[in-house]
Amino acid sequence: MDLPQLLLVGLVLLLGVVGVLVPGVPGTLLVWAGLLWWSLHERSAAAWAVLVASTALLLVVQVVKWQLPPRRLRGIGVTRRMAAYAGAGAVAGFVLLPVVGAVPGFVGGIYLCERRRLGTHGEAWASVRAVMRAVGTSVLVELLACLSVTAAWLGTVLAGPPS
Known about the structure:
Blueprint: H1 3-20, H2 27-42, H3 45-67, H4 73-76, H5 80-96, H6 102-118, H7 121-159
């Protein structure tokens, strides 16, 4: 697969990761579709292994999400700005401390947004707890899975073909 196609696959995966944070956008499906497209064009054992493992992970995440409480966005005041802060925090945490850093980064992003909006530590922390109870766990599980799939794809692409 040539560089422009790889960049396009990377863009689809990135849009899928961002789509997880936007209600109504099928982020997980976009990540999986980008990975499927790459695997069909790459046709290597590594590409198929990443696709199979990622498909299994994303299916498990969908089952886990169904078991979590439903999203109640309107009642607790989740805004697009908060979603942007939470997503940026999760990505930064994922980069700084691979995989496990996404969790504190996600929560930290929500806290930072609420601290700027509300002003005090107590009010911001209470808001973070309310957000995490309502939607945070569901979004975090899906975001972490999509980030892991994207990282696996990136690692496979950077490793290159076996020699």
